[in-house]
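step: validate -> pass
step: tokenize input -> pass
step: predict -> running
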Amino acid sequence: MSKTKFHESWTSSDCIKSLSDFINDLDEGYCTQKKYRETTGVADATWQRHFGTFSEFRAAAKVKLTKGQGKFLRDIAKHASSDCYRDLIDRKDWGEDYSRENKSRFKTILFCSDLHDVEIDPFYLRVLLDTAKRVQPDVISIVGDAFDLYEFGKYTQDPREFDPLKRIKFMHDDVFGPMRKNCPNAQIDLIEGNHEARLLRLIANDAPALRIILSDLHGMTIPDLLGLKQFEMNYVAQCDLHAFTKSDLDKELRKNYRIYYETVLAHHYPGARHMGMPGVNGHHHKHEIHQNYSPVFGVYEWHQLGCGHRRAAVYCDASKWGNGFALCNIDTHTKTTSFDYIPIVDFAVSGGKWYHREKSEIIV
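step: predict -> pass
step: emit ->
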């Protein structure tokens, strides 16, 4: 090891040449301040008076990018990393493919939210499907998070237990299929929630194996996965999945909503209750009612819906959740609404019909 020596006569160019020569002769490893000092014998003070820090010294010697260069390349990488999401931009056109219209003055919408595929409460599902069959709503609006797939979210699960195809098949066979069969004339809308957005982003980017399984082995495109074609459903999604941070994505997801008959609004997030019209939101799995006033709609109600997810979850405390869905009756001429919220506990009453939870539907 050489004893370090201060080279008082060295200019900045001399320092840069010394570091460049050292880097060129370096067989392997990273050029650190300690390694340069101990190998060359050049005292830190020699270059510190010209460059201050070793990081700036390396940048001057073109060994390290300058701050401006680094930011520029990081910005390129950030945009390039999300280019895969641009392939999903056409989903913004899936919201009107299967719209249904009739000229009747009075309309009924069935609103439900946060079904979470195989995590759905079986009693909730039975009441929901039977209510839809009896009421024959003009619209069934699923206000986000029909799919769960929490293994793709912020919650962790043993990857060996991943079974996304089981979850997708459940939604097709046990929810969307019976819903369409029970209500052949209804417009069915699925409003994109954070779970659907997260699923699509991860299929596009972080889960290429799943994308191969879906497309190559099962011939499934994204609309097939969501069941749009098979069950004639609209997918309401106006947000840009080309978002860099979770905060950016949350802001984008707030663009996903639908207004029905210029009278009632459906949105996944609760902030929509401040948008000035009656409506519903999901997301929080708890029923809340807010009474507001608008010069256009007068006094009206906003309902935060309970969920369809069973009140048991492996990744959080679900004991404070509430299960339920809502029917909204609308006079399109006067733009007035009347909500009927149906809570699901050990029994439920929907449209005057009583339902009781069966033994097989008890959540342990």
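step: describe -> The mean pLDDT is 85.
step: cleanup -> pass
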